[in-house]
Design brief:
The protein has 565 residues and is α+β, with helices and mostly antiparallel strands. 55% of the residues lie in helices and 18% in strands. It is elongated.
Length: 565
């Protein structure tokens, strides 16, 4: 813009010398010959022309409600990330063996180049996971090295989902490395959509989550649906026999101290290596800690030293030195299933039900899921649900667009009003915006592309180009009328004279976006909606500006002249 108002006029003054005459090229003359009959027909059938434009806007408006919606198009990264989930409490060695078996299965597919995995939590816990969870990065070969280069990646994913179920002990979530990281960073979940259930009782949360998961799994387009693993971790539970402890004169703290030393360990000193120090911790070996029978024989010292407890007839088993009783005589030990994790959000407990969406847009999937969950799942009082994942970002983006788009339209209208100094002519040029949106919506519908933030940016850019074409034509028609030409003659001559700049503006914008619209390489999924909107909108805007705008000008100008008379 700065160069247009500074450098270009200066360059014209310096380099364009002598007499200058404007000549039309052969393509422009051909375009004018084809355009003039169409313009006469539109001006001769004004009601039909305006009605056709309004019907077209209504039809495309109905199409817009059926486009579906998503936050951003899914980017094909060329690789896969398989989130392998196993039974909570699976130890590291077993998880590594199961992961090796899974990787060997992946290597049997000719499309796979190599695999590497990540299990558990690193020393710098940027991505904490238990040993029962693994991220499997599946690097695929270039498409030309596949047995069938034309095979869609979605077919390979479906085959993997179907056949990996026969590898025992695993559940899977299929996603992509960058997509998974962005979902986790932005929304806190790794999948496309998530239903967060909030409440107090973990059992009730798990039950409601299971019901929601069964509903999501039955919706067309759902994949990898599962409930967050909140239970299933084996926990050694020790119930103290307080009556027996009282008869032996034992306090709860005495027994708890023994258990703490045996399981958690106790620091008895420190070792120094240079300027570093390490605690010396004493505890039982893991082989004993994992056995209920061995732990039941853990000796607990008696405070009475083996003498009869006052007021009782209990005489502990005496031995040389201090007297002890086995832990099993004063406590009941059992291994029971306990909580695996307790997650909170905004200070409230929650359980997350996650799912990926394939073969349809996220907006229609969530709308269908909300309706089915409301009909099939009874949520107790004091518990509630909220949506997360990409859908959460889609809602946030919609709310911002509800502010940004009106502000952009008001700025455009304000500039038009400043140019013409009249509301009527500003509105006349502004009609190019809805006329341009028809082509953008129509092309999205024809190509099966849902509405996304990328498409929304395209619509905003398209509005500016559409207004520019109308501004060029209306300004020239007003100049001809100021020179004394009648309204119809000014409209006809102005439309023909401004055909070339309108076509140049349309061709520059449309041909510039055509490669983006037809691109199939990496990243094409993100730019394709924007380019499709602009290309289709430019075509409809150009056609409607050249035919409908002159008719609207005639209607408005005739009404204005009658009022002045």
């Amino acid at each position: 813009m700065i160069l247009s108002v500074t450098f270009v006029p200066a360059a014209v003054a310096v380099f364009v010398t002598g007499r200058v005459s404007e000549k039309e090229s052969l393509p422009v003359r051909w375009a004018a010959r084809a355009y003039l009959p169409a313009l006469r027909m539109a001006m001769g059938n004004r009601s039909v022309t305006v009605a056709t434009a309004m019907v077209l806007m209504l039809i495309t408006g109905a199409m817009a409600t059926r486009l579906g919606s998503e936050f951003l198009p899914s980017l094909d990264e060329g690789d896969l990330l398989v989130h392998a989930l196993r039974i909570p409490g699976t130890n590291l060695s077993t998880a590594v063996d199961m992961q090796h078996a899974l990787e060997r299965k992946f290597k049997t597919y000719p499309e796979v180049d190599y695999i590497f995995s990540k299990i558990g939590t690193a020393e710098i816990a940027t991505d904490p996971m238990p040993p029962s969870v693994a991220d499997t990065y599946v690097m695929l070969k270039p498409r030309e090295r596949w047995p069938d280069p034309r095979r869609p990646k979605s077919d390979l994913v479906e085959q993997l989902q179907r056949e990996l179920q026969f590898v025992p002990g695993n559940n899977y979530e299929f996603t992509q490395p960058i997509q998974m990281r962005f979902n986790e960073l932005i929304a806190g979940v790794r999948t496309d959509v998530a239903v967060k259930v909030f409440g107090d009782d973990m059992d009730v949360l798990a039950d409601v989550g299971t019901q929601i998961e069964s509903v999501l799994a039955a919706i067309p387009g759902a994949a990898d649906s599962r409930v967050e693993q909140t239970t299933g971790l084996p926990v050694l539970t020790i119930h103290l026999k307080r009556a027996e402890m009282a008869r032996l004169g034992l306090n709860v703290a005495d027994v708890q101290d023994v258990i703490e030393v045996a399981f958690g360990g106790k620091s008895i000193g420190q070792v120094f290596e240079g300027d570093r120090r390490f605690d010396i911790v004493v505890r039982l070996p893991e082989s004993l800690r994992a056995s209920v029978e061995e732990m039941s024989r853990l000796p607990v010292p008696l405070p009475s030293g083996g003498r009869p407890v006052a007021g009782t007839d209990v005489v502990p088993v005496l031995a040389r030195g201090p007297a002890f009783v086995p832990l099993g005589s004063v406590a009941e030990l059992e291994i029971a299933t306990g909580l695996n994790q307790v997650n909170r959000e905004n200070g409230k407990r929650r359980v997350v039900v996650t799912a990926n969406v394939r073969g349809r847009d996220i907006g229609s999937f969530v709308a269908d899921a909300e309706r089915r969950i409301q009909d099939a799942v009874q949520i107790p009082p004091g518990y509630w649900t909220a949506w997360g994942g990409q859908f959460e970002q889609l809602i946030s983006a919609r709310q911002r667009l509800q502010v940004v788009v009106p502000v952009a339209m008001l700025l455009i209208f304000g500039l038009l009003y400043a140019t013409f100094g009249a509301v009527r002519e500003a509105l006349l040029v502004f009609t190019g915006v809805p006329l341009a949106l028809t082509g953008g919506v129509l092309f999205l519908w024809m190509r099966g592309i849902p509405f996304s933030i990328s498409a929304a940016v395209g619509f905003i850019a398209l509005s500016g180009v559409a207004v520019l074409n109308g501004l060029v034509m209306i300004t020239f028609i007003n100049r001809l009328r100021e020179n004394g030409l009648p309204v119809e003659e000014a409209v006809r001559q102005g439309a023909i004279a401004r055909l070339r700049p309108v076509l140049m503006t349309a061709l520059v914008a449309s041909l510039g976006f055509l490669p983006m619209m037809l691109a199939t390489g990496r990243g094409a999924e993100v730019q394709r909606p924007l380019a499709t909107v602009v290309f289709g909108g430019i075509l409809s805007s150009t056609a409607l500006t050249l035919l409908v705008l002159p008719v609207l000008y005639l209607l408005f100008a005739r009404e204005r002249r009658e009022v002045e008379v």
